[in-house]
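Why do we bother with holo predictions? Because pocket geometry can differ from the apo form. Keep that in mind while you read this record for adenosine-5'-triphosphate.
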Amino acid sequence: MTGAAALLSVRDLRVVFDGRHGPMIALDGVSFDIAPGEILGVVGESGAGKSLTGTSVIGLLDPPGRIAGGSISLAARRIDNLPAEEMRRLRGREIGAIFQDPLTSLHPLLKVGDQIVETILTHLTVSRAEARARALQLLKDVGIPAADMRIDHYPHQFSGGMRQRVVIALALCAEPRLIIADEPTTALDVSIQAQITTLLKRLCRDHGTAIMLVTHDMGVIAETADRVAVMYAGRIVEIGPVDQVTRRPSHPYTAGLMASIPSVHRRNATLHQIDGAMPRLGAMPSGCPFHPRCGRVLPLCKTVRPELGAGEHASACHAPLPEPSHV
Amino acid sequence: MSDMAPILSVDAACCHFDVSSPWLARKLSGAPRRILRAVEDVSFTIRRGTTFSIVGESGCGKSTLARMVVGLQKPTDGSVRFGDIRHPDGRVAPPRVQMIFQDPYASLNPRWRVGDIIAEPVRELGLRSSERDVLQRVGDLLEIVGLSRADITRYPHAFSGGQRQRISIARALATEADFLVCDEPTSALDVSVQAQILNLMVRLQAEFGLTYLFISHNLSVVRHMSDHLAIMYLGRIVEQGPAEDVFRQPQHPYTRLLLDTIPDVEQPNRARRPMSGEVPSPISPPSGCAFHPRCSVAESRCTETRPEPRLKGDVQVACHLA
Ligand SMILES: Nc1ncnc2c1ncn2[C@@H]1O[C@H](COP(=O)(O)OP(=O)(O)OP(=O)(O)O)[C@@H](O)[C@H]1O
Ligand SMILES: Nc1ncnc2c1ncn2[C@@H]1O[C@H](COP(=O)(O)OP(=O)(O)OP(=O)(O)O)[C@@H](O)[C@H]1O
Ligand code: SF4
Ligand SMILES: [Mg+2]
Ligand SMILES: [Mg+2]
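The structure, written out:
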C-alpha cells in the first residue's frame, strides 16, 4: 500500500485536549492509509481513540479537542486544514459518516424519510420524487421492514437497531467515496449485521468505496475487513492483513484481546481478561503505554517507546510474539 | 418463600403501540387504525440467582419487554409480577430492580458530573450514611468498571462510547439491586473490557445471588452468561429452555438459522449470507406461524394456524414440525 494509491492517508496525527493542567495527548502519531475499495478494520481498547480518529478525519472534532500535528489527505488533497464551509460540503458528499451514537445523526422531530431526502437533495442534483424513491430503496437495502410505511415514522418509533440502520442509510445516500463507520453493527442482530456488512462489501467492490470500519466485533472484522489496525492508548500498536493480525497477533495487547473473545462453540467458567485498565490520558506511563499490563515486559519497555515498524504486518513492541514455527 | 419460587413471573404479557396517522388525517384519507404488536402473549419465569437471556432480531420486542419488566411500560394485557425475597435486613419484599439501558448516550444526564450520576441512587436510597462513604463507594464502583476515581469530576461527553457504557453499569451497580435488567450491557465494549465486566457480573451473582434478565445480540456472550434462554421472533417467544440445550440442539428453524449466522473469528465465513426473505413487520404480521415466509421447511399448515408452544424435554418450542 503506497501513499500515492491511497484514497485516505493519515500521517502522524496528533490530537490533544486542552485541559486545566495543560494539554492531554489523546492521539499520538497515528498513521495509516486506506485504498479505494478497501476496508480497514479498527479495533482496540475502549477509550483508545478510535472514534477520535474518525471524527478527526471528518473534521468534527469538538473543542477542547484539536489537531495538534500531522496531516489527513483525501485523494492526495490535504483536508485537515480546510475552511469549515468547504469541509461541510465534503462531508456527506465525499465522506459519509456513521456515528457510534445514532441520536446525534437523527433529528428527533423530523420523519426519517424526510431527513434522508433532504440530505440527498443537498448533495445530488435530483428531483424530490427521485430522492424519495432513492431513500425508500436505501431503507429497504438496510433491512427496514415495511419501509414504505416506516419512511414516514419518527425516530422514537423505531427500535435501537432500526435507528442505527436509518443512520447507515443516511450515510450512504449521497454515494460518498469514503465511509467512516463507527460501530455500525453493534446494535444489530447477526442477520441484519450480515445484511449490512454485505452491503458495505458490495459498495467497496462495485463503487471502489473506501471504508474505515470501527468495531468491537472480531467476527465482523474477520469477515469484512481487508486489513486491521489495533489501537491502544492513542496509538496504533499493530496493523496488517486481517488474517495475520487475528490468527498470528504480534503485539501482546492484540494477543490478549484475541484471547478475551468468548467462544460460541463452548462455555468457559471465566473469560480470559487482561488485568488492569488502560492508562488515563493525563497519566500516560513512560516507554510502552501497555507495559504495566504486559506479561512480556522487558526493562527497555519501561523507558523507550516502541515504534510501529514498517512492512505489511507491523507492530509497536520491543518483544513481539514470535511467528509460529513450522514444525 | 422457597428458593424454587420464581423471582419474576411474566404471564401472557402483551404490549401494543398505536402507530396510526393522526385522527383527522385518518378520517380524511379513510386509512385504518394501525396497531404495532411489539410484544405478544409472552410468558416465562426466572428463578433467583440465575440469568435469563432474550435474543432475537432487531425490532422483535426485546427492549419493550425489558421496559415492561422494570415498569417503564405498562403491559397492554397480561401481567408482570415479582416474587418476594428475604433482604439482608430481614424484610421480606419484592426485589429491588434496576435497568442498564441499551443506549449509553441517552441514559446519562449530560449536565451532571459522573460522580453525581453514580452517587444519586446511593444518596436517594440511603445506602451509605455519610457523604464520605458515598464518595468512597462511587470511587470503588468506578474502579470496578475499569475507570478511575479521578473521573468523578468529569462530564459524560468527555468519555468514549464504551467508557459511558461503563458509567451506566457503575450506576446500576450502585443501586445494589437484586434484579438487573441488562439491555445490551456490553455492546460498546471491546472484548477485553467486556471480559472484565462479564466476569464481574458472574462474580456478583455467585456472591450476592443477583438475578439477571440479559439481552444481547452477541450469541457468544449469551452462551457464556445464560442459564436459560428465550428466542423471540416478531413479538413472541418461539423457543425457550436451558441455554445449553438450546445451543446444543436448537429445535425451532429460526433458532437454527440464527445460530448459523453468527460471525465467527475462529472460522470466518466471508461469504456469509444474510437470512433471506423480507423481514416482516409487527404491524401486519404474517398469518399462521409468523416465521413461515422465511422458513425453509414450512408446510401449508404453517401458513394457516399458529403453532402453540409445546414442551419437548425441558425446552418449549412453538413450531408445527418440532
Ligand atoms: N471532551 C473530552 N475531554 C477530555 N477527554 C476526552 C474528551 N472526549 C474524549 N476524550 C478522551 O479521549 C479518549 C479517546 O476517546 P474515543 O472516543 O476516541 O475512544 P474509542 O476508542 O472510540 O472508545 P470506545 O470503544 O469506548 O468508543 C478517551 O480516553 C476519552 O476519555
Ligand atoms: N414508543 C413506540 N411507539 C411505536 N412503536 C414502538 C415504540 N417503541 C417500540 N416500538 C416498536 O416496537 C417494536 C419492538 O421494539 P423494541 O425496541 O422492543 O425492539 P428490540 O427487540 O429491542 O430491537 P433492537 O434489538 O433493535 O433494540 C419495533 O417495531 C419498534 O418500532
Ligand atoms: S513493548 Fe514491552 S511492554 Fe510493550 S507490549 Fe511489547 S513487551 Fe509488552
Ligand atoms: Mg468510540
Ligand atoms: Mg432494543
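The mean pLDDT of chain B is 88.
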